[in-house]
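User: Structure please.
Assistant: Input sequence and predicted structure:
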Amino acid sequence: MKSFLGITIVGSVLILGLAAFAANRSLRLLPSRAALAPAQAECTCRDLKTLRIELSNALLLQQAFSNKIAELRAMEMDGRVSSSELKRWAESDARKGLKEVPGSSGPAQVDYKPWGDKLNYQDDERVTSKFTNEELCRRSDESAAALEEAKKQSACAGIAQAIQVHEDWHLNFCRTIGYRPYWLGMRGADRAKEEVEAYGAQIAVLHAEIAKLLDKNCEPYKASGQDGPTSYSGVICNLEKPFTITGNNTLVPYPLKFVPSSATSGTLSYSATYKTLTMAGSGTYTIEGADTDKPRILAQTKSTLSGMGRSSSGGGPAHIDLTPLDTDECSKKL
């Protein structure tokens, strides 16, 4: 009997499972939300960080499998066994660079194992011909139970759906090409290609879940910093929508109003009055390090101070650090 190794991100852990991988085929899956456990909660702002780590890991693994295909194909051409190399690599080198997901609690392993694998001599067509392709390819009871447990233990419904989609990819591919070609015909490079496709389906779901949260102002950052006597403080829920940070120059606090033109740049303006003095200014800003865990706002401003019949102008840079928030402060504002 043969077993094929595949990798998927399930819940909050790296999963090693049994699966066969497709050659060059694309399937379209539309799993129903009704298939999710009734108690599974929808993803909220607090899950954004977890979703992004899941996405990052899935993208890394998808690229790793894609990069491995050529090497496996070359091994097959000179007669070496590519499936054993794929298994060795997937259990070791493929894991490099993966990020730890906070609060992981799912099962350690989820396998897609077709029901037909329980048969003795499944390589004998006289044995498999007694069953329909649907019967042979359906999940074994063990696989189905492990999948449901993984979904139940995942951080939120969107991650559970991504797990389901990834595993459904293998199931539907078996149904499409038939159990015997699926079980007997796959070499290492074909399996790696199928895993790339399965990750593609999983990644699409994670992207969609993250986009939904961003539409709900779930890009929470704490703003802080200081330039000379001026300090900055505030909370930013979404860098792509107008936001305000409070500046304080020891005399009076004043709002800095930011209007994005994109997720990483835009304009700002501010004004404040202290007794007989009036300050007003404007400028442009960019977000540095937007793809890191330590982004910051770098602004260039020009301002005018007037009062008592006089006025003066000046300008300079402003540096505001952004620290990701792990709270639901922004979602509560909806």
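The CA atoms of residues 123 and 297 lie 62 Å apart.
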